[in-house]
Design a protein that fits this description.
By secondary structure, the chain is α+β, with helices and mostly antiparallel strands. The chain is built from 1 helix and 7 strands. The chain has one domain: Carboxypeptidase-like, regulatory domain (Immunoglobulin-like). The longest helix has 24 residues. The chain is elongated.
């Protein structure tokens, strides 16, 4: 009986370590242009989310494998941006490349 519990504990520990390893070695990276357009980036996966602030437009989010939505909150006069179905594979970093942020189109009424 005691050896059964030890075996269960060892399997649980290995599973936990594997999950932690995947989280640390998988992710999403990219660069937003213009570099000062985005105030924060939110990576959304099921009920979890990770929020980061890009540095000079560059971002690197460590995440677990899965399918993400990437929301980029912008500063005026730029338009918020959403990317859907961003796939992150185990032990890989998904490179979104350079993301061009659009300006909002304001029309003035006189």
């Amino acid at each position: 009986m005691k050896s059964s519990w030890v075996f269960v504990f060892i399997i649980a520990a290995i599973s936990l370590l594997h999950a932690f390893k995947s989280y640390k070695s998988s992710g999403i990276k990219g660069k937003v242009t213009p570099h000062d357009a985005v105030s924060s980036i939110l990576a959304i996966h099921e009920n979890d989310s990770i929020k980061i602030v890009p540095s000079k437009g560059v971002f690197n989010i460590k995440s677990k494998p899965g399918v993400y939505k990437i929301f980029m909150a912008t500063r005026e006069p730029y338009k918020d941006s959403l990317m859907e179905a961003v796939l992150v594979s185990d032990n890989n970093t998904t490179d979104l490349g350079e993301i061009n942020i659009r300006r909002t189109s304001h029309t003035s009424v006189q």
